[in-house]
Recover the amino acids of this structure.
């Protein structure tokens, strides 16, 4: 006579292994998802913030160019102010090339106003930055 065991075998059944595997995978995904999503969201936020700084710098620089184009002494002085506002904006986003270009505009306006020493000071700053970024085509 064959008797059946009422006790479970010590060998795990395939169905149990699947359940444990699915449960483990679910726990892993639940806990790892916020970590994986947090990094891209932070990059998007910093990119958006940097983009807004770049847009502000471009707008301020364009205002300086517009004032310079008016060609009056008053507008040229105001152009220097606008260009000077732009320099720290380019610095904040780490764009040394555009910072140097802006400094060269300030030097040019001082040159137009006949303030040669101020012009030379800004041209020297421009040259130093252009050398730092390796731009040999725009040296003053």
């Amino acid at each position: 006579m064959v008797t059946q065991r009422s006790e479970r075998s010590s060998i795990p059944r395939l169905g149990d292994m699947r359940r444990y595997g699915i449960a483990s995978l679910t726990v892993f995904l639940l806990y790892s998802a916020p970590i994986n999503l947090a990094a891209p969201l932070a990059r998007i936020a910093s990119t958006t913030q940097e983009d807004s700084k770049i847009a502000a710098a471009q707008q301020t620089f364009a205002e300086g160019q517009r004032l310079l184009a008016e060609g009056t002494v008053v507008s040229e002085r105001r152009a220097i102010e606008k260009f000077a506002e732009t320099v720290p904006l380019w610095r904040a986003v780490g764009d040394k090339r555009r910072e140097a270009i802006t400094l060269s505009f300030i030097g040019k306006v001082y040159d137009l106003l006949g303030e040669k020493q101020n012009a030379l000071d800004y041209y020297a700053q421009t040259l130093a930055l252009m050398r730092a970024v390796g731009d040999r085509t725009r040296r003053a």
